[in-house]
Amino acid sequence: MYPISLHHTTAATAIGTLNPPVRSTPVKPDNSISVQGSVADRVYSLLRERIAHGEIERGTRLHQEDLAVELGVSRTPVREALRRLSAEGLVDLYTNRGARVATAGDDDVRAAYSTRLIIEPGAARIAAKVANHSTIEEMRSIIARGRPGKKVSAAQLFEINREFHLALVAAAGNRQVTEFMEHVWLARIGSQLYVEAPDRAILSNDWKAHSDIVGAIDAGRAAKAESLTRAHIERALDLLVAP
């Protein structure tokens, strides 16, 4: 595995991705990484974002020396950032062997989707009762970006899916729950269906499921919104861990 480069123009080549990154935070040269917050905070935030958006793929080796050179910082803030990412389960640290971006096995996927099944259906029920017009329009706007027939890459569709489900949770109006689910989604749960082995029929069904969920929320049908969300997540889990 090649050492990772954090510059937007070289990251895809260094980690062997097939699709260009959907979003990126270009790294300014020299000391610009320390403009806001501590150096370690900035390194941590940048690595966390790139892992979340798939610019650094699962299983990629992370070399402290290479990261330090690339970012123009010492090894100390890089080491601290990797420790924080490890505490979040995003990076695996190995004694005398450096670090790798954590991979997700079937048990990890089941755990993440079990969490989603506890939170997202209830969030959809509450969202339907709250009936906040702005959050409903935000979800519709996200859905429109992935409408079947539009020229959107599989990687972009995954980002749209992630944004929709986070917007759904946010529509319930509980900031702490929203922040918790943002962390759950950092592991790019379900990306196999979009990026690694995309199936356009599955993606089209997801688009319809999202539209139906928002329709139920907009109509104030709380029980319907909850059941549709539950069925949607259960179906995705069945596809992900199918024998």
| Tally of DSSP helical segments | 11
The backbone outline, from C-alpha atoms, is elongated
What composes the largest sheet? 3 strands, antiparallel
Distance between the termini: 29 Å
Oligomer: single chain
Strand arrangement across the biggest beta sheet? 1-3-2
Strand content: under 5%
Mean pLDDT: 79
Number of strands: 3
Q: Enumerate the spans where pLDDT stays under 50 for 5 or more consecutive residues.
A: 1-32
Report on this structure.
The chain has helices spanning 8-15, 39-52, 64-71, 75-87, 106-130, 133-145, 154-170, 175-185, 191-196, 200-218, 222-240, and strands at 61-62, 91-94, 98-101. It has 243 residues and is mainly alpha-helical. The protein has a 3-stranded antiparallel β-sheet with strand order 1-3-2. Strand 2 (91-94) and strand 3 form a beta hairpin. It is elongated, with a radius of gyration of 19 Å.
Layout of secondary structure:
Elements lengths: L7 H8 L23 H14 L8 E2 L1 H8 L3 H13 L3 E4 L3 E4 L4 H25 L2 H13 L8 H17 L4 H11 L5 H6 L3 H19 L3 H19 L3
Antiparallel strand pairs: 1-3, 2-3
Helix pairs in contact: 2-4, 3-4, 5-7, 5-8, 5-10, 5-11, 6-7, 6-10, 7-8, 10-11
Report a brief summary of the structure.
By secondary structure, this protein is mainly alpha-helical. The protein is built from eleven helices and three strands, in the order H-H-E-H-H-E-E-H-H-H-H-H-H-H.
